[in-house]
Design goal:
mainly alpha, 3-stranded antiparallel β-sheet, 9 helices, 3 strands, rod-shaped, DUF6818, DUF6818 domain-containing protein
Length: 283
């Protein structure tokens, strides 16, 4: 009942809600229900309007849908009329059909709606947002198909590609340099080890030489193993083919030693060559 009365009256100011209260209380008395105050009816309607619609697959109650619809009608009516004060008569301009309670309501003086340019200067906010979005979209499209913008974008892409290639090349060179440096460090380590080994070998040889030079000589001179041999004699050994041997000491003046025992005979053969062999040792 309340929504029917509000839809008929479409109240904007205090007089509109006063008319709603009058009609509602009249019907409440006829139905044997308690009367309500104006603020109570207005608060009840605003609670229905503030109730949000369920999201997802939820079902919105019919009274909530109708309250939102009536509120949109009230807002639409408020946007087309000039409100002088809060006592604007809502009953004359907001009715959609005849009412049976017109005789009981006081008839206010008619007011003339005055068109003001201030209401036409600024479009609704949602239109501004839509227009701004369309303008931004057109600007984006024009910038996307602009040859100068495309050329700049291609140059920027080529520059980034070249920079990436150079970065990869420098990274590979750095890795190669690090590998070469590591190899050279290994070779240097090996060379140092070889140098240390050579130094140790030289030190040992030098120490050995010093020890040999510092060692004392023998107490008695070492005699030759042939000290008992006659001087200026030559020890000669003869081995015979048939077996046996002979040993003799020969001097430098010995005719046999001077001429040799293997001088050829008159016939050209060596005397005694087949019979024995000679070995001479110098004293």
């Amino acid at each position: 009942v309340l929504l029917n009365i509000i839809e008929d009256e479409l109240p904007i100011g205090q007089r509109g809600w006063l008319a709603v209260m009058t009609k509602f209380n009249k019907r409440a008395i006829e139905s044997g229900r308690p009367e309500r105050k104006q603020t109570s009816l207005e608060t009840k309607f605003k609670q229905l309007v503030k109730t949000t619609k369920p999201t997802g697959n939820g079902v919105c109650p019919p009274e909530i849908k109708r309250a939102h619809h009536i509120n949109s009608l009230i807002n639409e009516r408020a946007g087309t009329c000039d409100l002088g004060d809060s006592d604007f008569n809502d009953a004359d301009g907001g009715r959609t059909g005849p009412s049976s309670d017109d005789d009981s309501l006081p008839q206010p003086e008619p007011r003339v709606a005055v068109a003001r340019s201030a209401r036409n200067e600024a479009p609704p906010p949602h239109r501004n947002a839509h227009g701004t979005a369309m303008t931004g979209l057109l600007n984006s499209l024009s910038n996307a198909f602009d040859p100068a913008v495309q050329r700049a974008r291609d140059e920027d892409r080529a520059s980034r590609s070249l920079a990436n290639t150079q970065l990869l090349t420098l990274s590979q060179q750095l890795r190669d340099s690090q590998a070469t440096n590591k190899s050279l460090r290994g070779q240097l380590f090996d060379l140092r080890n070889c140098m240390y080994e050579a130094h140790r070998t030289a030190d040992r040889a030098e120490m050995h030489l010093k020890m040999m030079c510092a060692a004392p000589g023998p107490a008695h001179p070492v005699r030759s193993m042939y000290h008992n041999l006659p001087k200026h004699k030559h020890q000669s050994y003869r081995w015979f083919v048939d077996g046996g041997e002979s040993r003799a000491w020969l001097s430098d003046d010995d005719a046999e030693f001077q001429q040799g025992i293997f001088e050829p005979n008159e016939g050209g053969s060596l005397e005694g060559f087949g019979n024995y062999c000679l070995m001479t040792f110098w004293a």
